[in-house]
Amino acid sequence: MNKTRFIFIFIVLSLSSCKEEPFTIKEPFTIINDFFYTYKNEGSEKALSEIFQTNSQLFKESRNKIDEVLNKLNNITSVVGKYHGFELICEKGIGSSLKQYSYLVKYEYQPLRFRFTFYKINDNWKLISFRFDDDLVEELSEASKVYFL
Q1: Residue scoring higher pLDDT (39 or 10)
Q2: Cα dihedral: 70, 60, 91, 73 (round 10)
Q3: Domains of the chain
Q4: In the prediction, which pLDDT does 148 show?
Q5: How far apart are the first and last CA of the chain?
Q6: 134 CB neighbour count, 10 Å cutoff
Q7: Which residues of 115-126 are buried (b: 16+ CB within 10 A; e: fewer)?
Q8: Residues 98 and 120: beta-carbon distance below 8 Å
Q9: pLDDT number for residue 74
Q10: Nearest alpha-carbon partner for 99 in 125, 71, 123
């Protein structure tokens, strides 16, 4: 009886140690912070590669698109100067499973906006879209017109 109880406890403990730890599930803010850390320290290619890997299907199917985004990003960042950090502009969502985060990315000569869209399925957040642009100044000018006030 004691031997059976010992084996049962050993099996339960072994199985519980095999389950995925809760801290391995990353929230979008953590994924984005990791992206910007890598972006600053190891460059845009590695940062984009890592963030797209949160969605293995998208990463496999879109390697050419990732390369295209990377080339466009490298071209524009060569003009806007040295990277100086980032700030959250806004977070929007639909329900609790679709979130978009817009960031002001600060460069020496002008800012860019990075937009990350994440989809949550089975408690895992996956990147489904990454876009960047330099339309912030025009949008700010438009928003400051009298008829919007």
Answers
A1: 39
A2: 0
A3: 25-148 (3.10.450.50)
A4: 63
A5: 79
A6: 15
A7: bbbbbbeeeebb
A8: yes
A9: 87
A10: 125
Is residue 105 within a helix (H) or strand (E), and if so which, with residue range? strand 98-107
User: For 33-56, what is each residue's pLDDT tens digit?
Assistant: 999 999 999 999 899 889 988 888
8 Å CB contact between 109 and 81: yes
Within 13 Å and on the Cβ side, how many CA atoms surround 32?
A: 22
> Pick from 103, 112, 138: which is nearest to 32 by CA?
103
Number of H helices, E strands in the chain: 6, 4
Q: Answer positive or negative: Cα dihedral of 72, 84, 130, 34.
A: positive
Question: The whole model's pTM is what?
Answer: 0.77
Task: Answer yes or no: are the C-beta atoms of 31 and 124 closer than 8 Å.
Answer: no
Which residues pair with residue 125 across a beta bridge? 120
Bridge partners (DSSP) listed for residue 100 = 92, 117
Q: Which helix (H) or strand (E) holds 100?
A: strand 98-107
